[in-house]
Design a protein that fits this description.
mainly beta; two-stranded antiparallel ribbon; 5 strands; 27% strand; elongated
């Protein structure tokens, strides 16, 4: 949906959240709990929704750290087997 087309129904009637939201998306580490921003895309035709997480946020994870680095070390996210 990030490209403006719904992968489920092919519609281009896609909307994205005006502001990223944070509170439901946490990465719990030994150092504490960090939040990562998420953009939400919604298809008005089939009601499909996609969430896209921000990969890098120095204010959240620290300088030179990324979501990809921190999630595998977190206490509340597990890799799908």
């Amino acid at each position: 949906m990030i490209n403006g087309k719904c992968p489920h129904c092919g519609s281009s009637d896609i909307y994205v959240s005006d502001k990223p939201f944070y509170e439901a998306f946490m990465v719990k580490t030994e150092a504490g709990t960090d939040l990562f921003s998420v953009q939400c895309y919604l298809c008005l035709d089939c009601r499909a929704m996609e969430l896209h997480a921000a990969e890098r946020s120095p204010s959240l994870f620290g300088k030179n750290k990324a979501l990809k680095d921190e999630v595998p070390k977190s206490a509340n996210w597990k890799k799908v087997a």
